[in-house]
Design brief:
By secondary structure, the chain is α+β, with helices and mostly antiparallel strands. It is built from 6 helices and 19 strands. Helix content is about 30%, strand content about 25%. Strand 13 and strand 14 form a beta hairpin.
Length: about 325
């Protein structure tokens, strides 16, 4: 019996003395496993980052985030940029446009005006994050600015009520406000802007309000062809008679006649027709004779030629 006890004690001591060695063996085996798992995690994380950058190009376009100023994010605009229009929602169900993007009343109109009534629901066009929720009495009235993953920022102005707060994440179709007539407005409507790197782009290049749809899965912005495309978009999807002229070919011809015009300055041109005068052109284009004369280095007694191209803004 005593011998059995001694044998059991000896085995117990051997077992206990071997535990540290077994623990070391386990750690030794676990170390390369941990390194492999860490490498896998790093690859997965990098893939996630790459995927996020692919799905969220706005991360590379904008350097900062500002809740105070709507237009403080004018950054370097790329020569070309593909904007995904997938997973969209029309900001309003209204199909009635009341004003085009471009020259209006002697100044630049940076978006589209869509007829809505006070209290109509306004929705986020794409998923994104609310950057600005403010009131501007002499301009936008009650407005909201949202930065989207596709690189765009959208503006919703003249609303009667804002339904979101700054830094709030929204999905496409989420209610963000109610239609109204606040700010510099002559009637209830939604002023809708699409901006890339702070530069206003014609929403008609991407949105077809009459058909309540987007024009394609993607819109590819090109500096070199933007003017022409914007003019054609106004003619096809804007308010009739408010683009360059009354003819689609003339729109294209005029836009092509000044390919070097800066999209930032958003110059606009008029092709002189027989019998037109500086006064009639100024009246038609919503500007003044003096402004046209100054832009084109003309005098009051200057004769206009049919086919002559005049800058009116």
């Amino acid at each position: 019996m005593i011998q059995k006890i001694k044998t059991f004690a000896l085995l117990a001591m051997i077992s206990m003395s071997s535990l540290p060695m077994m623990g070391q063996d386990l750690l030794a085996h676990q170390a390369p496993v941990d390194r492999r798992m860490k490498a896998v995690d790093s690859v997965a994380l990098q893939r996630l980052i790459d995927f996020d950058n692919l799905e969220n190009p706005s991360a590379d376009l904008y350097e900062d985030w500002d809740n105070m100023h709507a237009h403080s994010h004018v950054t370097v605009l790329p020569d070309s940029f593909r904007i995904s229009l997938k997973n969209f929602c029309m900001p309003t169900t209204s199909r009635v446009l009341t004003s085009n993007f471009g020259a209006r009343w002697g100044r630049q109109h940076k978006g589209l005006d869509i007829k809505v009534y006070i209290g109509d629901t306004i929705r986020a066009a794409f998923a994104g994050k609310v950057r600005v929720v403010r009131y501007e009495g002499r301009g936008y009235g009650k407005y909201v600015v949202i930065r989207h993953d596709n690189g765009l920022e959208t503006y919703y102005a003249h609303m009667s009520k804002q339904l979101v707060v700054e830094d709030q994440e929204v999905r496409a179709g989420d209610p963000i406000g109610l239609g109204g007539n606040t700010g510099r407005s002559t009637g209830s409507h939604l002023h809708f802007e699409t901006r890339l790197c702070g530069v206003a782009l014609n929403p008609a290049l991407m949105f077809d309000f009459r058909n309540q749809d987007v024009v394609d899965d993607y819109y590819v912005f090109h500096k070199s062809s933007y003017q022409r495309e914007s003019a054609v978009a106004n003619r096809l999807r804007g308010v009739s008679g408010m683009s360059f002229g009354n003819d689609l070919d003339e729109d294209v011809e005029l836009a092509t006649a000044a390919p070097e015009a800066s999209y930032v300055q958003e110059s606009r041109f008029h092709k002189v027709k027989r019998g037109e005068t500086l006064y009639s052109i100024a009246h038609k284009r919503g500007t003044t004779v003096d402004a046209i004369m100054k832009l084109n280095h003309l005098k009051k007694n200057s004769k206009l030629r049919p086919g002559q191209i005049l800058k009116f803004n």
